[in-house]
Amino acid sequence: MIGGSRVRLNTWQQTAVAVGSAVGALLDPRRADLIAALGETTGKPAFERVLERMRQSTEGRAVLLERPRVISANAGHAWDLPPNTFGAAYARFMGSRNFSPDDRPPVRFMDTDELAYVAMRAREVHDFWHTLFDLPTNLIGESALKVIEFEQMYLPMCMLSVIGGTARFNPKQRKLFYQHYFPWAIRAGMQCTDLMCVYYERHFDEDLEELRRKLGIIPAPAAP
Predict the structure, then answer these.
(1) Of the candidates 18, 62, 73, 95, which lies 20 to 30 Å from 80 by C-alpha distance?
(2) Distance between CA 37 and CA 157 in Å, rounded?
(3) What UniProt keywords are attached to this protein's entry (predicted)?
Protein backbone atom coordinates (compact mmCIF):
# COMPACT_ATOMS: atom_id res chain seq x y z
CA MET A 1 0.00 0.00 0.00
CA ILE A 2 1.51 3.30 -1.14
CA GLY A 3 4.61 1.51 -2.38
CA GLY A 4 4.29 -1.49 -0.07
CA SER A 5 1.79 -4.26 0.78
CA ARG A 6 -1.15 -3.97 3.17
CA VAL A 7 -0.90 -6.00 6.37
CA ARG A 8 -4.16 -6.61 8.21
CA LEU A 9 -3.79 -6.95 11.99
CA ASN A 10 -6.24 -7.99 14.67
CA THR A 11 -6.31 -6.09 17.97
CA TRP A 12 -3.70 -8.25 19.69
CA GLN A 13 -1.35 -8.15 16.72
CA GLN A 14 -1.72 -4.39 16.44
CA THR A 15 -0.90 -4.01 20.14
CA ALA A 16 2.13 -6.26 19.78
CA VAL A 17 3.44 -4.31 16.79
CA ALA A 18 2.87 -1.00 18.59
CA VAL A 19 4.66 -2.10 21.76
CA GLY A 20 7.51 -3.74 19.89
CA SER A 21 7.96 -0.73 17.64
CA ALA A 22 7.91 1.66 20.60
CA VAL A 23 10.58 -0.28 22.45
CA GLY A 24 12.73 -0.67 19.35
CA ALA A 25 12.42 3.00 18.42
CA LEU A 26 13.41 4.10 21.91
CA LEU A 27 16.49 1.86 21.75
CA ASP A 28 17.42 3.05 18.26
CA PRO A 29 15.71 6.30 17.12
CA ARG A 30 17.34 5.91 13.69
CA ARG A 31 14.98 3.03 12.85
CA ALA A 32 12.55 4.92 10.61
CA ASP A 33 10.65 1.69 9.88
CA LEU A 34 9.87 1.17 13.57
CA ILE A 35 8.82 4.79 14.05
CA ALA A 36 6.57 4.46 10.99
CA ALA A 37 4.98 1.25 12.31
CA LEU A 38 4.39 2.90 15.69
CA GLY A 39 2.74 5.88 14.03
CA GLU A 40 0.42 3.67 11.98
CA THR A 41 -0.62 1.24 14.72
CA THR A 42 -1.36 3.98 17.28
CA GLY A 43 -2.47 6.78 14.97
CA LYS A 44 -5.60 5.60 13.14
CA PRO A 45 -8.02 7.93 15.04
CA ALA A 46 -5.66 10.87 14.48
CA PHE A 47 -5.32 10.13 10.77
CA GLU A 48 -9.11 9.86 10.48
CA ARG A 49 -9.45 13.35 11.97
CA VAL A 50 -6.80 14.70 9.60
CA LEU A 51 -8.61 13.09 6.67
CA GLU A 52 -11.86 14.78 7.64
CA ARG A 53 -10.14 18.17 7.96
CA MET A 54 -8.57 17.72 4.53
CA ARG A 55 -12.01 16.99 3.08
CA GLN A 56 -13.24 20.32 4.47
CA SER A 57 -10.36 22.32 2.93
CA THR A 58 -10.07 23.42 -0.71
CA GLU A 59 -6.36 22.57 -0.95
CA GLY A 60 -6.84 19.50 1.20
CA ARG A 61 -9.50 18.14 -1.15
CA ALA A 62 -7.18 18.77 -4.10
CA VAL A 63 -4.42 16.80 -2.35
CA LEU A 64 -6.79 13.89 -1.68
CA LEU A 65 -8.06 13.96 -5.26
CA GLU A 66 -4.68 14.13 -7.00
CA ARG A 67 -2.63 12.29 -4.37
CA PRO A 68 0.74 13.92 -5.14
CA ARG A 69 3.79 12.00 -3.97
CA VAL A 70 6.93 13.68 -2.64
CA ILE A 71 9.47 11.66 -4.60
CA SER A 72 12.51 12.59 -6.64
CA ALA A 73 10.67 12.31 -9.94
CA ASN A 74 8.12 14.91 -8.82
CA ALA A 75 10.30 17.23 -6.73
CA GLY A 76 13.48 17.34 -8.83
CA HIS A 77 12.50 20.60 -10.57
CA ALA A 78 12.87 22.41 -7.23
CA TRP A 79 16.61 22.60 -7.92
CA ASP A 80 15.95 24.86 -10.92
CA LEU A 81 13.81 27.43 -9.08
CA PRO A 82 15.04 30.91 -8.03
CA PRO A 83 16.97 30.83 -4.73
CA ASN A 84 14.37 32.85 -2.80
CA THR A 85 11.58 30.33 -3.43
CA PHE A 86 10.22 27.68 -1.13
CA GLY A 87 11.11 24.97 -3.65
CA ALA A 88 14.74 26.07 -3.84
CA ALA A 89 14.96 26.22 -0.03
CA TYR A 90 13.61 22.67 0.15
CA ALA A 91 16.14 21.52 -2.45
CA ARG A 92 18.99 23.12 -0.46
CA PHE A 93 17.73 21.48 2.73
CA MET A 94 17.69 18.04 1.12
CA GLY A 95 20.91 18.45 -0.87
CA SER A 96 23.00 19.79 2.00
CA ARG A 97 22.15 16.67 4.02
CA ASN A 98 22.31 14.22 1.13
CA PHE A 99 18.68 13.27 1.80
CA SER A 100 16.41 11.66 -0.77
CA PRO A 101 12.61 11.96 -0.68
CA ASP A 102 12.50 8.36 -1.91
CA ASP A 103 13.80 6.99 1.41
CA ARG A 104 10.48 7.02 3.30
CA PRO A 105 9.22 3.55 4.36
CA PRO A 106 5.89 2.44 2.86
CA VAL A 107 2.60 2.48 4.77
CA ARG A 108 1.54 -1.04 5.76
CA PHE A 109 -1.00 -0.98 8.59
CA MET A 110 -3.81 1.37 7.51
CA ASP A 111 -7.29 -0.05 6.84
CA THR A 112 -8.11 1.89 3.67
CA ASP A 113 -6.22 3.36 0.75
CA GLU A 114 -7.38 6.85 1.68
CA LEU A 115 -6.06 6.59 5.24
CA ALA A 116 -2.87 5.03 3.90
CA TYR A 117 -2.38 8.04 1.66
CA VAL A 118 -2.94 10.48 4.55
CA ALA A 119 -0.37 8.58 6.63
CA MET A 120 2.11 8.64 3.76
CA ARG A 121 1.44 12.33 3.11
CA ALA A 122 2.16 13.12 6.77
CA ARG A 123 5.43 11.22 6.43
CA GLU A 124 6.44 12.86 3.15
CA VAL A 125 5.75 16.50 4.11
CA HIS A 126 8.02 16.21 7.16
CA ASP A 127 10.95 17.76 5.31
CA PHE A 128 8.74 20.54 3.95
CA TRP A 129 8.03 21.44 7.58
CA HIS A 130 11.75 21.33 8.41
CA THR A 131 12.29 23.84 5.60
CA LEU A 132 9.44 26.15 6.55
CA PHE A 133 10.27 26.20 10.26
CA ASP A 134 14.01 26.34 9.57
CA LEU A 135 14.74 23.48 11.94
CA PRO A 136 17.93 21.40 11.88
CA THR A 137 17.83 17.61 11.71
CA ASN A 138 19.73 17.02 14.94
CA LEU A 139 18.03 15.54 18.00
CA ILE A 140 16.87 18.94 19.29
CA GLY A 141 15.47 20.00 15.91
CA GLU A 142 13.65 16.72 15.36
CA SER A 143 12.17 16.81 18.86
CA ALA A 144 10.96 20.38 18.36
CA LEU A 145 9.32 19.43 15.07
CA LYS A 146 7.61 16.47 16.73
CA VAL A 147 6.01 18.91 19.18
CA ILE A 148 4.58 20.85 16.21
CA GLU A 149 3.50 17.63 14.50
CA PHE A 150 1.66 16.56 17.65
CA GLU A 151 -0.17 19.88 17.82
CA GLN A 152 -1.10 19.55 14.15
CA MET A 153 -2.17 15.89 14.10
CA TYR A 154 -2.36 14.63 17.72
CA LEU A 155 -0.43 11.51 16.80
CA PRO A 156 0.64 9.59 19.93
CA MET A 157 3.87 8.64 18.13
CA CYS A 158 4.91 12.31 18.03
CA MET A 159 4.64 12.72 21.79
CA LEU A 160 6.42 9.41 22.37
CA SER A 161 9.19 10.61 20.05
CA VAL A 162 9.57 13.80 22.08
CA ILE A 163 9.79 11.80 25.32
CA GLY A 164 12.29 9.38 23.79
CA GLY A 165 14.33 12.15 22.19
CA THR A 166 14.59 14.33 25.28
CA ALA A 167 15.57 11.29 27.36
CA ARG A 168 18.74 11.12 25.25
CA PHE A 169 19.66 14.78 25.80
CA ASN A 170 22.63 15.67 27.93
CA PRO A 171 21.91 18.29 30.64
CA LYS A 172 22.96 21.18 28.40
CA GLN A 173 20.76 20.01 25.53
CA ARG A 174 17.81 19.43 27.85
CA LYS A 175 18.06 22.94 29.27
CA LEU A 176 18.33 24.44 25.76
CA PHE A 177 15.33 22.47 24.52
CA TYR A 178 12.94 23.21 27.37
CA GLN A 179 13.94 26.85 27.81
CA HIS A 180 14.35 27.78 24.15
CA TYR A 181 12.84 25.38 21.62
CA PHE A 182 9.90 23.83 23.46
CA PRO A 183 8.07 27.12 24.22
CA TRP A 184 8.66 28.26 20.63
CA ALA A 185 7.36 24.96 19.22
CA ILE A 186 4.18 25.18 21.30
CA ARG A 187 3.53 28.71 20.06
CA ALA A 188 4.48 27.93 16.44
CA GLY A 189 2.29 24.84 16.24
CA MET A 190 -0.73 26.71 17.58
CA GLN A 191 -0.32 29.82 15.42
CA CYS A 192 0.19 28.28 11.97
CA THR A 193 -2.51 27.07 9.62
CA ASP A 194 -3.57 23.43 9.29
CA LEU A 195 -0.40 22.23 7.59
CA MET A 196 -1.82 18.90 6.43
CA CYS A 197 -4.26 20.82 4.23
CA VAL A 198 -1.52 22.59 2.24
CA TYR A 199 -0.74 21.50 -1.33
CA TYR A 200 2.98 22.26 -0.95
CA GLU A 201 3.94 21.35 -4.48
CA ARG A 202 1.77 24.20 -5.80
CA HIS A 203 3.75 26.67 -3.68
CA PHE A 204 7.26 25.66 -4.78
CA ASP A 205 7.71 28.80 -6.89
CA GLU A 206 6.51 31.22 -4.17
CA ASP A 207 8.87 33.39 -2.14
CA LEU A 208 9.77 31.50 1.04
CA GLU A 209 9.15 34.40 3.42
CA GLU A 210 5.83 35.27 1.81
CA LEU A 211 4.71 31.66 2.08
CA ARG A 212 5.69 31.57 5.73
CA ARG A 213 3.57 34.67 6.37
CA LYS A 214 0.66 33.18 4.44
CA LEU A 215 0.77 29.98 6.50
CA GLY A 216 1.43 31.71 9.82
CA ILE A 217 4.83 30.06 10.20
CA ILE A 218 7.17 31.30 12.92
CA PRO A 219 10.71 30.14 12.00
CA ALA A 220 12.78 28.62 14.76
CA PRO A 221 14.75 31.21 16.74
CA ALA A 222 18.51 31.15 16.63
CA ALA A 223 20.01 29.15 19.48
CA PRO A 224 21.52 31.40 22.17
Answers:
(1) 62
(2) 9
(3) Lyase, Membrane, Metal-binding, Mitochondrion, Mitochondrion inner membrane, Ubiquinone biosynthesis, Zinc
- Residues making up the annotated binding site are 126-127, 130, 142
**Residue 135 and residue 220: Cα distance in Å, rounded?**
6
